[in-house]
């Protein structure tokens, strides 16, 4: 994936061609050919334009691909990505990428006439939805809304409909798709998360950064699905990172005879004080007028207003929660890397019942570590680097981890000095010698080898 990102960052295809260029890249990769960029620009000069392009144009596509790969863990990743890209091209998801570009391409905030929603070419399709006209509350420049609900409840239908699609025919959402809409002078990003059983595990990853929640419930479903939907709703809204944030519960599919109204639904669940409830037909073609139900606008506006009126508190909470989440993820990553390092050292030194695997000869080991940190030859490795290779027992994975500490793929990650890496490996080795190996590592031994992977050298 990192190769694809570098390729795209240099090529920077214009909007409308991103999916095609990526498809070509992965198709060639599946055939064993790694494409090199044809553009003359170099990735070492990270210009602000590159960062903007990465964040606005590529990030939604790559985030979606990564989420899909992580959720389904396909055996053949390249072929799976090709399938996803083809789906994105065929379905409306391709347009979403352009939408994000369009919204963000507005160079400066358009002039706002007080009380009037802003209409630009890009916003014309959506400006009537959630319009802030007549509201006293100032809208924040940006907010993030999470849309949750079981599979088939109508989340994507709603998001497509409010973007002007008169007859949405979405496929089940796999993973996560952001929809950025310009409403007045605000950019509202809706996170559309798939509601399938296996995808629901990723929902909590998005709770911290959300300012408000929309939960779509198919109020016409069979009893079992309805009960499941209610308990998933209650579980989500009461989770620490969402509890108390403004929430809208939409009872969808009012057009169907088996529809349960508000009164009936409230017999099954108690609505938390932060939630409002409404009855809607989200699909434009299922309303009597065969057009977008105006009640959608009314209810979304009300949700936006509730967020706006308490925005400083909510955004402070979002900032803190996001920081906390990042710290937690970082700690988990460090713990995981340490487990893997210890497992590799156990293999290198045949400790705690591990058998030696992937051990290089000293000369191959020096060369391997030198190349991992970007040198051509072993001779270029400084003395301390050679000592690190020795401390690793010339074990392949241990050396890859050490190289990842010296030259991390991500610029955001700390670059360690060789002396610090030596100290870290010595500490890990001492723990192994004392028999301090966690159960997970032993389990991996029984299963035969390095389990799970998950270090981020080479990965995004
Ligand atoms: N009758 C009726 N059907 C609707 C309505 N809204 C959505 N649907 C249908 O419900 C089905 C599922 O819609 P989606 O929008 O894909 O559901 P989703 O919640 O995004 O599902 P996942 O992506 O799998 O989580 C589609 O067949 C829609 O046409 C509605 O108001 N009335
Ligand atoms: Mg969907």
Automatic annotation (TrEMBL):
Mg(2+) binds at residues 156, 173. The keyword Signal does not apply. GO terms for molecular function: GTP binding; GTPase activity; metal ion binding. InterPro entries: Ciliary_GTPase, P-loop_NTPase, Small_GTPase_ARF/SAR. Keywords: GTP-binding, Magnesium, Metal-binding, Nucleotide-binding. Signal peptide: none annotated. GTP binds at residues 149-156, 195, 252-255. Coiled coil: none annotated. It holds the Pfam family Arf. PROSITE patterns: ARF (PS51417). The keyword Magnesium applies. Gene3D superfamilies: P-loop containing nucleotide triphosphate hydrolases (3.40.50.300). This is Uncharacterized protein. It comes from Triparma verrucosa.
